[in-house]
Amino acid sequence: MYQSDFFSESIADSIANLPQAELIYIPDFMTKGQASFYYSELERTLPWRQETIRIYGKEMLTPRLQSWHGYINTDYQYSELTMSSNPWTQTLLDIKTQCESRHKATYNSVLANHYRDGDDAVGWHADDEPELGNQPVIASVTLGCERTFSLRHNLTKQRIDLELESGSLLIMAGPTQQYWQHTIPRRKGIKEGRINLTFRYIYR
Ligand SMILES: [Mn+2]
After folding, report:
1. Ligand 1 centre and the CA of 1: distance in Å?
2. For the sheet containing 65-70, what is the strand order?
3. Largest CB tally within 10 Å, which of 19, 88, 116, 169?
4. 45 C-alpha vs ligand 1 centroid, how far in Å?
């Protein structure tokens, strides 16, 4: 058994019986070669921005680059910030189609996050904005460097750390966003970047 198979199986095991969550992990969604090809292409071609957000009245730069894409009328609002949607690129549409056929669902937008190195991160949050609807299905594709993705239950504080590998797909569905928050913590010493594509369906 290869090491990656071992770790993949333990991720599958550890998410299988999480209460009030519906998670599916597909480690071999694409090959490592495809993933690194997509990483370089998206790093070069997406209109990355570092957004300013207000948290408790204080303005700060988000510690990551972002790019929001979708059909018209899929502007996205969070933390008092509205991101207007960029048009789809062929690569983003190709990956969207692969997500939709691998796990039956439909998406009309994608939030791309670029964690340039281990200093980039995202704090605890849930993807629970009203325009995502009641039990959103979110498809999360990891390209590039492996980073820890942690989940924490809102009430029991049960916590689980998943090492999401390059080329993997994590589906979050059902009541996951209602009962769990997630984060990508800082990791000192990591020099490589990770691009995370989170495909969503925005209701209008
Ligand atoms: Mn999120």
Report:
1. 32
2. 22-26, 169-173, 138-144, 194-200, 109-115, 65-70
3. 169
4. 22
Q: Cα(127) to centroid of ligand 1, in Å?
A: 5
For residue 37, the CA-to-ligand 1 centroid distance in Å is 24
Q: How far apart are CA 15 and CA 67, in angstroms?
A: 29
Domain that holds residue 11: 3-200
> Residues within 5 Å of ion ligand 1 by Cβ?
127
- Per the structure, how many domains does the chain have? 1
Is 179:154 a contact under the CB 8 Å cutoff?
yes
pTM: 0.92
pLDDT digits (tens, 9 = 90+) for 133-185: 999 999 999 999 999 999 999 999 999 999 999 999 999 999 999 999 999 99
CB 133 within 8 A of CB 200: no
